[in-house]
C-alpha cells in the first residue's frame, strides 16, 4: 500500500448548537482562529447553567438548527420554525462547561437566546433547558480538536457488524462528524482514518495540510437516533466490539479528530490526500 492515498469529501456537516441536530453544508469555512465557522457556537444549559449534552437529554437530537447568515432558526419534527436573536448585550449570562483535560468546571460568558427557544427545548425534552450563544473565550477553549472525521468504509464495517446481529444500519450522523471521508477510484480500508497522520487538500494536495490529532473516544451518544431521539445500547456495544478487535483493552473509538488550517475552505466533493503512518 502507498503511504499516500487519494480520497474525497463525501459529506460535510456543522452543528450550530452543541448536542442538537446537524446541518449539512457545501463547504466548511475555517476561521482565522482555526475553528469551523458556525459549528457549536451555541449550547444548551440546564437549570444549573451547566452546558448539557445528548447523553443527558437524547431528544435534543430532534432540535434542527439552521443558519441563514447571522440568523439562527430552530425547528422540530411537526413543529413551527422559530428564529432566535443573535447575541444580545441585554441578555448576558454565564455558563459552566466541563473541561475533561483538567477534570473541572470552567465558567464563561454567554448570551441567553430568550424564552421562545427555552419553551421549544422544554416541549421537546420535558426539562427546563435554555439556549445560549457562547462568548469568544468559550469558543476558543474548544479549538484543540475542532474537526471530527469518519470514513464511509468504517461505517460499512460497522453496518456489517450490526447486520450480523440483526440490527438496523447506522447513518453517519450517529457519530456527529464534520467530514465524511469517501473513496475515489482507489478503495479505502475500514478504519483507515486511524492510520492517517495528515490530510491534504487543494491542487495535488499542496494548498493545505491538516494534521490528524487523536482518535475519537466514544460515549453513549451514537446510540441516540438522529431521527427519533430514542437511545439504545446496541450501537455503542457494536462500536466497542469492533474497537476491541483493533485496540484490545483500550477505550471504544470510532473516527478521528483533526486540526484544520486557519483561513482555508473544505468543499463537498473535494479530492483529498491521506498521508499514512506506515
Q: Total number of helical segments?
A: 4
What characterizes the major β-sheet?
7 strands, mixed, barrel
Total number of domains:
2
Q: How far apart are the first and last residues' alpha carbons, in Å?
A: 9 Å
By DSSP, the count of extended strands is 17
- Calculate Rg over CA atoms: 19 Å
CATH class of the largest domain: Mainly Beta
Kindly identify the CATH topology of the largest domain.
M1 Pyruvate Kinase, Domain 3
Uncertain segments: none
Gross CATH architecture of the largest domain: Beta Barrel
Question: Can you walk through the features of this model?
Answer:
- The chain has 278 residues and is α+β, with helices and mostly antiparallel strands.
- The protein has two domains: 4-15 and 145-276, M1 Pyruvate Kinase, Domain 3; 42-140, no CATH class.
- 15% of the residues lie in helices and 35% in strands.
- It contains four helices and 17 strands.
- It has a seven-stranded mixed barrel with strand order 1-12-11-15-14-13-17.
- Helix 3 links the parallel strand 11 (147-151) and strand 12.
- The longest helix has 13 residues, at 152-164.
Amino acid at each position: 500500500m502507498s503511504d499516500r492515498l487519494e480520497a474525497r469529501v463525501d459529506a460535510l456537516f456543522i452543528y450550530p448548537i452543541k448536542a442538537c441536530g446537524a446541518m449539512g453544508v457545501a463547504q466548511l469555512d475555517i476561521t482565522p482562529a482555526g475553528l469551523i465557522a458556525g459549528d457549536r457556537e451555541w449550547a444548551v444549559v440546564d437549570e444549573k447553567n451547566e452546558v448539557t449534552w445528548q447523553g443527558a437529554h437524547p431528544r435534543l437530537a430532534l432540535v434542527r438548527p439552521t443558519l441563514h447568515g447571522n440568523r439562527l432558526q430552530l425547528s422540530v419534527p411537526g413543529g413551527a420554525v422559530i428564529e432566535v436573536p443573535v447575541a444580545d448585550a441585554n441578555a448576558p449570562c454565564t455558563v459552566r462547561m466541563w473541561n475533561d483535560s483538567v477534570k473541572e468546571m470552567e465558567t464563561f460568558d454567554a448570551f441567553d437566546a430568550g424564552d421562545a427557544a427555552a419553551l421549544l427545548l422544554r416541549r421537546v425534552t420535558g426539562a427546563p433547558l435554555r439556549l445560549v450563544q457562547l462568548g469568544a473565550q468559550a469558543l476558543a477553549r474548544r479549538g484543540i480538536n475542532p474537526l471530527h472525521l469518519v470514513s464511509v468504509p468504517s461505517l460499512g464495517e460497522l453496518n456489517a457488524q450490526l447486520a450480523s446481529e440483526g440490527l438496523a444500519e447506522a447513518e453517519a450522523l450517529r457519530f456527529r462528524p464534520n467530514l465524511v471521508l469517501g473513496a475515489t477510484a482507489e478503495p479505502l480500508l475500514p478504519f483507515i482514518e486511524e492510520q492517517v497522520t495528515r490530510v491534504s487538500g487543494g491542487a495535488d494536495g499542496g494548498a493545505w495540510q491538516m494534521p490528524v490529532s487523536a482518535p475519537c473516544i466514544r460515549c453513549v451518544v451514537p446510540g441516540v437516533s438522529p431521527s427519533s431521539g430514542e437511545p439504545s445500547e446496541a450501537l455503542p456495544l457494536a462500536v466497542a466490539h469492533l474497537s476491541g478487535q483493533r485496540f484490545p483493552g483500550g477505550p471504544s473509538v470510532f473516527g478521528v479528530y483533526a486540526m484544520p488550517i486557519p483561513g482555508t475552505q473544505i468543499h463537498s466533493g473535494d479530492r483529498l490526500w491521506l498521508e499514512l503512518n506506515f
